[in-house]
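Dear colleague,

Following up on Tuesday's group meeting, I ran the structure prediction for the two-component complex that the binding team flagged. I've pasted the input sequences exactly as they went in, so you can double-check that nothing got truncated or mislabelled along the way. The structure tokens for the whole assembly follow below. Feel free to forward this to whoever is handling the docking comparison.

Inputs:
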Amino acid sequence: MLRFLNIVAILALVGSAVYAYSIKYQTSYRAEQITKTKIEIRQERDAIAVLRAEWAYMTRPERIQQLADAYLPGMKQVEATQVVAAQALPERLPRVDSIGQKLDSLGLSMPATPPVPGGASPTTPKAQGQERRKP
Amino acid sequence: MTQTVRDTQPPPSRTRELRRLLRAIFSTSLDLSASRMRLAALGFLALYGVIAIKLVYLGFKPEAATTRRAAAEAVAASRPDILDRNGEVLASDVKVMSVFAEPRRIIDKDEATELLTAALPGLDSREMRERLGSRKGFVWVKREVTTHQRDEVFHLGLPGVGLIAENKRVYPNGPIGAHVLGFANVDNQGIAGIEKYIDGQGLADLHGAGFGATPEELKPISLSLDIRATHALRDELEKGVTHFKAKAGAAAIMDVNTGELIALASLPDYDPNKPTDALDPIHINRMSVGVYEMGSTFKALTIAMALDSGKVNLNSRLDARGVLSFGRFKIHDYHAQNRALTLPEVFTYSSNVGTARMAMGQGVERHKAFLRKMGQLTRMRTELPESAEPIVPKNWGELNTMTIAFGHGLAVAPLQAMMAVGALMNGGYLITPTFIKRSEEEAKDGAERVIRPETSEAMRYLMRLNAEIGTARKVNVAGYYVGAKTGTAEKVVNGHYSKTKLFNTFMAVAPSDKPKYLFLTIMDEPQGLPETGGYATAAYNAGQVTGEIIERVGPILGLAPRFEPPHQPFPLLAKLGYGYANVPARGGGGH
């Protein structure tokens, strides 16, 4: 009995020692990982700082102006007349079903009556659409 | 123990004796004499005491400076990013590698010197040898090396030579906004401009105390500058300075309601990435460090003083006939009308005689007090460490009041004049200009009211009138309802005012009915050109440039253009019975 207890105790001792060792090993492994990640984060952060500075350098107004002068020869400075407030824009036109209207104007649904003379003229939205397409 | 016993190889009798002695010492039976126990206890006590004392001693002894620590103290500290009002980067830190050495650990100093000078061109080998020969623990070999040089030094594999990452300040926009930003030196300490201001705000103390602030702990600083507007302003100014062959020029845009400087440029300028250029006196910030006689723009202050006192109003007439004599001095008008002028005419014809009389009507003391109230007689301090004391006459007599009324005899920093004119425009609040972003509430919080709102409106009316029919017609950019005043000061050469060397200023406000931005352009000795008819007065050069600036910057700053005149631009004046009723038909040329 006593011998059995002794063996159990020894086994428990060895087991706890192994467990403690593995915990310690894992801890130091994780700590190493954390340090590594921290270094990576720092490197990334430094890289971001460099990229941000580089971005600011590449998009500096002076350079953009030079590039615009060289590659956009037709462009001009914005004039005050070109600036319009959002409120000054006209209201959007109501949606019109132009195809449906055309079909209606054909008078297919009412074969008995002849079409109204004015009804066949093109509707406003279509005319607008054509105009807008012009440069 | 038995080992020792056997080693000594004593005779058998002595062996027994020794055994007895050892047994007596190491015996655990308690019948031994107490004194022996006490002796053993004392021995152990002494041993542990020595250990304890040594521990305390080690604890108090200052730690030997390790290389890492020495390096951490020497490397350039990190600084917060500087952003413009829209979040664009104006100044930032990037990491660069620097080469250092620990002379005590270098084995072959000659070899190290030879290899290092070969890898890093630009190093003086004799100086290097001296530095490596010193007995210091840490010396710099070269700061801020390129990646290629870094790799080369790394591959040399010299013991006692190492690489360390440092912060380097970069200014991606180069000279744009340079005078506001200032610069930082190789140790990343602010030397001028906002950079120095940041250090003064506690950053330097933080570093000094050893808290090497990490970049993520530092909050970026938002300036009031708009980098795109600053670039546009500088570009137009540069064109103007070149075109009119001026010696120097400067321009600025200020938000009159918050005192924020939206843009500032002073030419010639420098690239803060090359700090050595910044120290050249020709590169000073002419807006805040230079002091100048502001010429006729000062008339706005005189007229505001007279109007605010209630002694004159917009309908008053002032005698502007002939020449105003005072002792042996004579005051002339550039656009002499030789008749009694109404107050708006005095402004639009820029009459020296009329303004001088107006100031005399107030008296020397009140004139002085008014200018003091407007902050024109004391040094103005902004965030920029660079500032200048105005040059105020020592004995301020009647003649001084007369000349200062039209901007001669008192030299102030242009930014200071902007502050005063800003107060005339914004409804009467004197707001110290700032380079840090802030709201209108913050600005008006500590601002003092210096003139009545009616006076401010009258001044806006006069400025507008001057841009419509007066001397500042060049700047009447359609859509922005601009008001403006020209100023041409003659420079003092050998104690006399020169007729050919001019210092021109031009102030403009937009829009005049709801003032938002104040523009100032100054030009040092611009030349008359054939297309200006040989004239070199302010309207032809500084005014021209200001017009270009407003036209270009207006859309950037989101100024809404209006092509119909505002319905009632000056409501307070309309209530008082003025309006555009007493508009003179014509206001004068380009003085």
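The two ends of chain A are 104 Å apart (CA to CA).

Cheers,
M.
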